Amino acid sequence: MEEELSVVFKALGHPIRRQILDLLKKSPKTTGELDEYFPKVTRYAIMKHLTILEDGNLVVVRREGKYRRNFLNAIPLQEVYNRWVGKYMQSTAYSLINLRSTVEQNGGKERMTTNNNDFRIEQEIFMDAPREEVFKALTERIQDWWEFRVAPEGKDSFLTFDPVPGGQFMEKWGENEGAIWGNVYYVNAPEEIRLHGHLGMQGAVNSAYTYRLIEKDGGTLLQLSHSASGIIQENWEQDHSKGWEYLLGTLLKNYVENK
């Protein structure tokens, strides 16, 4: 853990690297697109900065044809927050599904902005636990750590996740009451599982998310890919990104490492 934090702080130690993270926070960008933001810096230097950010796990790279697309991975920053800030401040910002509360706080008077577009979230987190254990925690044991619920206030609910093709990630709070968080359409246990699911989004939205588990350094590197398209409200990408950071970088990581 100390070594990982040292790498993160090294990655944050240069102003250009911090500017790159600011740009990626707005949207993923190719290496060429990032290069255009720094006309006085050579492309080689930008690539070197990106390599340091990737070593610090602050940038996740996905290759799309001949292009290299860079995504912000804020989970290491979440770990820094948990260590030095989280114990002193109670967070109220984490939620995949805070749309209803936002409307209620505004008295239902403000209209949320919507856009017919899409978003894509890529995150990675290393866990000091065997891949089989992480896969079981993500699926069969999800009730033990998954914190978010859509059940009406005052009703207890229970989560189940059947990791087979056609299986469902479901929340139930009554004999015939509940919600489906995801439908499984691909499984290669314990390496990968893919689902379709709205994850709190409502309306004309197509959403899918994938977990990939890679054995690394005696533990497991969990890669999350989440994409959504359709009528997207402007805060959904940010809410889901923060929600995943909390779910994977805090709740799941603590569960599998301290179980």
Largest sheet: number of strands, sense, barrel closure: 7 strands, antiparallel
Question: What is the residue-averaged pLDDT?
Answer: 85
Characterize the overall form: globular
CATH H-level homologous superfamily name of the largest domain: START domain
Provide the helix percentage: 25-40%
| SSE order, one letter for each helix or strand | HHEHHEEHHEHEEEEEEH
Q: What is the end-to-end distance? A: 17 Å
Q: What share of residues are in beta strands?
A: 25-35%
Strand ordering within the main sheet: 4-10-9-8-7-6-5
Rg, Å, rounded: 19 Å
Residue ranges: pLDDT <50 for 5 or more in a row?
A: 87-95, 99-104, 108-112
Q: Total domains, how many? A: 2
CATH topology call of the largest domain: Alpha-D-Glucose-1,6-Bisphosphate, Chain A, domain 4
Question: What's the total count of β strands?
Answer: 10
What's the CATH architecture name of the largest domain?
2-Layer Sandwich
Based on secondary structure, the structural category is alpha+beta
Please count the helical segments: 8
> What is the name of the CATH class of the largest domain?
Alpha Beta
Domain HTH arsR-type: 7-86
Keywords: DNA-binding, Transcription, Transcription regulation
Pfam families: AHSA1, HTH_20
Protein name: SRPBCC domain-containing protein
